[in-house]
Amino acid sequence: MKTVLAVLARFAVVVVSLGCAVAALPDDFAGADPAPLNPVLVIGGFDADRGILENLRSDLADRGYNAYSMVLPGVPAGSSGTAGIAESATVIADKVADIRRTTGARRVDLVGHSMGGLAQRHYVKFLGGLDSVGTYLDLGTPNDGQPLGFLCAPLFPGCRDIAPDSDFLQQLNTPPVLPPGIPAYHLYSENEGPERSHLPGAVNASVQRFCPGRQVSHRDEPQDAAFQDLIDSALRGGPLATDCPRQFFLSSQRSSLEPDIEHPDIG
Asked: Residue 227 is part of which domain span?
């Protein structure tokens, strides 16, 4: 009888020990560190407002990202984005390489506004960027072209490239439009026309899908708080989400289809 009791006692100790070990497992996993965030490069569009780009870059930095920003190159006497878009893509390639050297990161996430999205797509598709980019996100990018490009096409290569059916866009939009396998997002405002064209291979979503009735002009997209929420959730792997924060900036509600002759919202 004593032998039986001894065996049962030992069995109880083993069961209790196993129970404690199993119970400890969730705590062990709960303490695991989340995957580190990739550095992020914010890329402006045609005639980019550096202050608006800095608003987005600063917001991403506040959310824990190692965030950088850049504007596209311009021709002499031209604003940012007036150089050819393929030329702009080479500048993006150099910037990404520099960020990787500086941070030691294997991949950099890209957030390109308007024409910046076209330039980053050329980099990813044709200049080897697929091996260096984590998440691809374009914001307000007219992936099928912006008709306002015809206005300044006689003057600037970037305008010729962004005009619908340009040689540049025909090559860029030859399938596959995006290299397979890259996490990609196309975010846009329903207040603007050309940018509503969907990007094949990407998650396509308007800010109004989450915030019905929200008014966001093309130029203000990078500094709109709801857009910034969506960008953050995309870079973290989704799902896209925002609580539609109040808008505090003075938004220009002029449509990109009604150009300002001095500063058209081409891209």
From this structure: 40-235
